[in-house]
Amino acid sequence: MRRWATYLGIVVLVATVAPVLGGGPAAAAPGGPSGVSAAAEGLTIRVTWSPPTDLTGVTGYRVTAVPVGPSVDVPVGAGSAVLTGGRPNTPYTAQVAGGSLRAVTPARLLDTRSGLGAPAGATHQVDLQVTGRGGIPASGVGSVALNVTVTQPAGAGFVTVYPSGTLRPTASNLNYVAGQTVPNLVVVPVGADGRVTLYSSAAAHLIADTAGWFSTTATAAPSAGLFHGLTPARLADTRIDLGGPTPDRGGVLDLQVTGAGGVPATGVSAVVLNTTVAGSTGPGFVTVYLSGQPAPTASNLNFVAGQVVANRAIVPVSTDGKVSFLNSNGLTRWSST
Questions:
Q1: Alpha carbon distance 35, 202 (integer Å)
Q2: pLDDT tens profile 262-290
Q3: Exposed site from 30, 51, 54, 57, fewest CB < 10 Å?
Q4: Do 149 and 42 sit in the same domain of this protein?
């Protein structure tokens, strides 16, 4: 039988996520940091704070300069952070916040090729409604995780994703050359109107799929959505049939993730995986999704013949501890890390 895909490998990159607890009254939100202060040192902002005494439910902090400037994520228990890349002569307010992570089945929110979420046609900017769509709640959302893809750009450039209604930062989430298709997983705070803005420096088609969302500090749960970092471990590599053989064109690999690579056998609702494709014989895409469910109309990786490309994915885990990988077509080899 002819192989259209050859190699797929998966490495647990950073996380498992604890399940949402059912039954009983709603738990109180975790305590927030206090005594937040900031000092400017050139274009660098040094932020300090006092962590709460009770760290139950605190999964880490996102430190942000407002209006949109540099931001950084730091682990639970941290009391300081350094933000770089500020703009000269710009006043900033430092914010320190935390929230619980919820993974969702990927759903497409934006595709300018078809007019989904924005008028059809190549564009430079889209203000995209994210709350209340694609598994994202209508309220209580601090940030969203989106798999953003640029395709058919008219020239070389970059994409920046940021909260709507705020100044566009000087950072980029995607970089591309003319005609290239590039995806990347982006975590971005949500604007006050429930939207995020996608800006492309060159006219291009933009695609965005949901991957998950983070609660606000006020709505964070003390035990659900806890983020646990792990030492990277390879769970699959189809070059050596680790985790299973490479699926044929249109085929699916169901991979056991719980109980492997440091992921607990129970109490896991989602995993963060770094997935890589290598040695493809033609263009295509890979979709990573909840095992046992129909494949969503979203993609995590896009590639052309011979390309090696990687991307991170936040994926819900099925009741039997598996996630699935769809091989679209035209591949010869899959590799994931």
A1: 42
A2: 888 988 888 888 888 877 888 889 999 99
A3: 54
A4: no
Q: Which of 46, 69, 98 is a domain's end point?
A: 98
pLDDT tens digit sequence for 89-141: 666 655 555 567 788 889 999 999 999 999 999 999 999 999 999 999 999 88
CATH number at residue 106: 2.60.120
- Domain ranges, residue 58: 34-98
Same domain, 241 and 267: yes
What's the pTM value of the predicted model, to 2 decimals?
Answer: 0.63
For residue 337, give the amino acid letter: T
Distance of CA 61 to the CA centre of its chain: 16
Dihedral sign (CA 64, 70, 72, 78): negative
Compute the CA torsion angle 61, 266, 219, 300 (nearest 10 deg).
70
| One-letter amino acid for residue 127 of the chain | D
Q: Is the pLDDT reported for residue 6 higher than 80? A: no
Counting every residue written for the chain, the total comes to 337
pLDDT at residue 89, as a whole number: 64
| Tokens matching residue 19 | 């399940």
Q: How far apart are CA 232 and CA 221, in angstroms?
A: 27
Residues 203 and 241 reside in one and the same domain? no
Contact 97, 196 (CB under 8 A): no
